[in-house]
Structure formats: structure tokens, C-alpha cells
Amino acid sequence: MSTIKQRLENVKKLQAKRWENEDHWDTLNDLLIRELDEILLAEPDNTPALINMGAVYSDMGENEKALEYLNTALNLGSEDKNLFVNLSIVLVYMGKHQEEYLEYLEKAEDKTEDPLTFKAYFDPQSL
Description:
With 127 residues, the chain is mainly α. The chain is built from six helices and no strands. α1 runs antiparallel to α2 (25-42).
């Protein structure tokens, strides 16, 4: 049986494949969500899983749901750079005021990226 760390490493690899296989985007998102749900069932306070779930939902355009997962990781005390970047991305997509998302970007500057997490996709042209 694989460890949670191995499962998160696999999630990160699968996430990268979404961009190479856009024909299977929905199927890969479903797999990611299912795997992250199982990880969170075993470890509800696993902040990398929460951050990744937030990124996946953001990529799917479900920003309210993404924000719930990201805020949970924030409330658990995560200091992961990707958490703060993802919060910024979600707030931009939600049309929040600049001060709200810039605050998270500033916090991200001196943070370190957890190797088990990933950033949500951000396309400034889509705004």
C-alpha cells in the first residue's frame, strides 16, 4: 500500500499530465479529485492535499469550492508558497479587490514551495 506522500507525488504527476492530454481533461480532474478525497478521508488535516484540491477546483472554474479548501489549509497554519499563490489566483478569478489578492502574493514571496503541492493555472488573458 502506498503512503500518503507517494500518493501526493502521484497526484502531482497526474496533474501535470492534464496539460498534455486536454482531450481527457475532465477524466483526469475526476481522478485527481477522487484521489485527493481519499487522502483527505485518511488525513483530513493534510495541507498539501487541501492545497492541491483547491488548485484542481480553481482550474475547473469552481472558485468558491477552491477557496473552501485553501482557507482550510490556511486555517491549519500552512506556510506553503503555493497556498498563498493559489489563494491569489482564486481571488482574482472571483473578481475580488486588488488589495485582497496582493496581500497573499506578498506573503508568498518569502515562502517555500512544498514539493508535494502545485499551483493553480492562471491565465491573465482570460480576465
